[in-house]
Structures are given as structure tokens and as C-alpha cells.
Amino acid sequence: MTYSIAEAARRTGLSIDTLRYYERIELIDPPARDTGGRRTYSEDDIGWLGFLTKLRTTGMPIRLMREYAKLRRGGPATASRRKQILVEQRRDVLERIAELQGSLDVLNYKITNYEQIEKDMAGLLAAPQEAAS
């Protein structure tokens, strides 16, 4: 099955401009063309775009994504370097997750603190009314 550029954009969550940009900077191979000269994307293309999106979500720089894409075209002989890129990116992601977890812990602490303050204030406000009864 093949997809138009608009359908590929919808399926991947990328804009049409981003798809064209990825083609221009050689993150993706030029897609096939239909008889009218319009780009068509295969299931494999959609899968590769999904992977690129994940790499981007991890914060991988475009420069490194381009290196990875170029290596991918080199086939199995480049597997070691591609693995190295992913291992290094995983390390960076794990560091960011730990940093975010620390930030989340602080937020949770502060929220719990404010919930206790609200509870204490509600008790204080209810106490004078009970005394007046």
C-alpha cells in the first residue's frame, strides 16, 4: 500500500513541510512518485518516519539523525556505529528522565505541602463556627 504526502503526514503526525524537509536534508530517501509525479510513501517509509520521530522526541540532534540515516543506507556493515549512536542517545534519555523525576518529586512534595495547608486552613475556618454553635 502507498500513501500520498498528505496521508503520510497524517499517519506520522509530521507536517507536509517536515516531510519535504526530511527529504531535502536526506533523512529519508526520495519517495517514489505516482504517474502524476506526486510523492508516494510506502509502509516502510511510514515506519522509518515513525522511528525518526522517536529519535527527535528523545532530543537527538538533526546532525546525528542525518549520520544515522546515512549509515542505515550502508547496510549491516554500519550496524556497530548505529548501535553506538543509539546507546549514547539512550544514556542521554535516561539522564533526562532522572532529572525530570527529581523535578517531579519536588513538585509532588510541594503539592502535598499545599494540600496539607489547605486542610489545616479548612479546619481553622470550621473551628470558630463550631465554637459559636
From TrEMBL:
Sorted UniProt keywords: DNA-binding
Domain of life: Bacteria
GO MF, any single term: DNA binding
InterPro entries cross-referenced by the UniProt entry: DNA-bd_dom_put_sf, MerR-type_HTH_dom, MerR_fam
Coiled coil, from the record: none
Domain HTH merR-type, residue spans: 2-71
Membrane-spanning residues: none
One Pfam family in the UniProt entry: MerR_1
UniProt-listed PANTHER family: HTH-TYPE TRANSCRIPTIONAL REGULATOR ADHR (PTHR30204:SF98), REDOX-CYCLING DRUG-SENSING TRANSCRIPTIONAL ACTIVATOR SOXR (PTHR30204)
Protein name: DNA-binding transcriptional MerR regulator
